[in-house]
Write a structure and sequence with these properties.
single chain, three-stranded antiparallel sheet, two-stranded antiparallel sheet, 8 helices, mainly alpha
């Protein structure tokens, strides 16, 4: 009887843990989707990229750095010769600063001038510029974007059709396709 009770308790704990994990991404998206849409309009960076990176870097808003420093992107700054995670007064400042960090990169001008809104191209460029140290960063961000279908936010905002990982957009009546 004791073994059945222990098994039942363990199963309950496991199911509660799984349930809690599945609500984290939803709660994160509910809280930050509108913010990233506004940033997409301002900086021309796909909302899917902003969300995907922030979800990974902050553990869906549960990491110590995101909770204690309102830093959702792992952005670091140097103070008194020491590198540390940058602290923000408000969480939204972290999102805006991430866009400003990207805005200073060489690829930003090219991607925004060409109006590239394909999340994969953006993540490729961010990764190639050395944003993250982990070799797993790139596939993990892409996995998050795909798993939660974040690219649909970009599609909805821009009304550009997205077919699988192919992005079609039209500039001056010329259709471009990226993969």
């Amino acid at each position: 009887m004791k073994i059945k009770m222990i098994i039942a308790i363990l199963l309950l704990i496991i199911s509660l843990n799984i349930s809690a994990q599945s609500t984290k991404p939803k709660a994160f998206l509910d809280k930050y989707e509108d913010v990233t849409v506004e940033l997409m309009k301002e900086y021309n960076i796909p909302a899917s990229v902003i969300l995907g990176v922030s979800m990974l870097e902050s553990g869906y808003g549960t990491s110590n750095v995101s909770q204690t420093k309102n830093n959702y992107f792992g952005v670091r700054s140097k103070k008194d010769g020491i590198w540390d995670y940058k602290k923000y007064e408000q969480d939204i400042e972290s999102f805006d600063d991430f866009c400003k960090v990207l805005e200073r990169k060489k690829y930003y001008r090219k991607l925004t001038t060409e109006k590239v809104l394909d999340y994969k191209t953006w993540v490729d460029n961010i990764d190639n510029a050395g944003y993250a140290e982990s070799e797993h960063w790139h596939p993990r961000v892409l996995s998050i974007v795909r798993k939660y279908e974040l690219y649909k936010i970009d599609e909805k905002i821009n009304e550009y059709p997205l077919r699988d990982s192919t992005f079609v957009f039209n500039i001056w009546n010329i259709e471009y396709v990226t993969r």
